[in-house]
Design brief:
The protein is α/β, with parallel strands linked by helices. The protein has one domain: Rossmann fold. Helices cover 34% and strands 24% of the residues. Strands 3-2-1-4-5-7-6 form a seven-stranded mixed beta sheet, sandwiched between helices. The longest helix has 18 residues, at 17-34.
Length: 203
């Protein structure tokens, strides 16, 4: 592979990120797979521990090419809806025939979803440098009704900034969410990058 997007991805956040992922779409899966990308499977497995209804509607936010959808499907989930900033990534996801709906969203625009539309939200490898900003966490938690679940991950690049876990701890300390699961493990093993996987419940 002549162009290594992983060498540049963590320099992007906010403006320009959608275009970056559009450019990466056709080679994304090859590059992350050759680096051993395992966070989608870890998040899907963690969510399955707490969400027993396999037909429950799940918002796969930042679904990309659908690797997270494949991981959720492997755990038996059947009712997935994907949102992403990149139209080219969504084209790749559509080819997998995993999602009930796929929707392109804008970084700063309101999300086309009402509170409680989804029983669970997956934001796998989404929040952090090279992807969505931290306030995305607030937006997604705000979409959950009481009892709703969210699985998400922070990789090593995000966790270098203490604001990421501090925001989660703030929600836990104010009894807005309950932390059900937290586990550090591999993210991109070939690059020795780890991630922490979480599952929270809205209170």
């Amino acid at each position: 592979m002549t162009r290594k997007f992983l060498d540049k991805v963590y320099d992007y956040i906010g403006k320009g990120v959608a275009e970056f992922y559009d450019d990466w779409a056709t080679s994304y899966e090859e590059e992350v797979t050759e680096n051993g990308y395992v966070t989608p499977g870890r998040c899907a497995s963690a969510l399955a521990r707490f969400l027993k209804d396999k037909d429950a509607p799940i918002l796969d936010f930042g679904c990309g090419t659908g690797l997270s959808g494949l991981a959720l499907h492997a755990e038996g989930f059947t009712n997935m809806h994907g949102f992403d900033l990149s139209s080219e990534m969504l084209t790749q996801a559509e080819e997998k025939n995993l999602y009930r709906t796929l929707t392109k969203v804008e970084l700063d625009a309101p999300l086309p979803v009402a509170k409680g539309d989804y029983t669970a939200i997956a934001a796998i490898g989404v929040i952090g440098p090279g992807a969505a900003p931290l306030d995305t966490f607030d937006k997604l938690v705000g979409l959950l009704n009481q009892g709703g679940l969210m699985t998400f991950s922070y990789n090593d690049h995000a966790l270098k900034d203490r604001a990421y876990e501090a925001r989660l701890n703030e929600y836990v300390d104010t009894a807005t969410v309950r932390l059900l699961f937290r586990e550090r493990g591999p993210h991109l093993p070939a690059r020795n990058i780890h991630s922490t996987v979480y599952v929270i419940e809205k209170l």
